[in-house]
Specification:
Number of helices: 0
Structural class: mainly beta
Strand content: over 45%
Helix content: under 10%
Radius of gyration: 19 Å
Shape: elongated
Largest sheet: 4 strands, antiparallel
Distance between the termini: 21 Å
Oligomer: single chain
Number of strands: 8
Amino acid sequence: STMLFKASGLVYYSDEYFVQPTRAAYSTQSSFTKYDARIAVAANDERWEIALTGRNLSDEMVIQHAYNIAGNQFQNLGIGRSYMLEGVLRF
C-alpha cells in the first residue's frame, strides 16, 4: 500500500515502404512490427520512481536512410533492441 506498480506497452506496425523516391530495391523497407515495454515501481506520493524500459524488443533492423554513391548502395539502420534503467527523484 506504500508503493505503486506501473506498466505500459506499445506495438508499432509498418507496412513495406521506400525510403528513397527512386523506389530502388536497396531502399525498400519490408513490413515490420516493433514492441516497447516499461515497468516501474514508485512511491505512493510519486516522489521517487525506478523503471526498466525495453525498446524494439523484437530487434527489428529498420532502414533509416538509403544512399547510392558512385554506383554503391548503402543503408543506415536504426537502433536494435535496447534496455534502459531510469531513476526519478522529485523534490
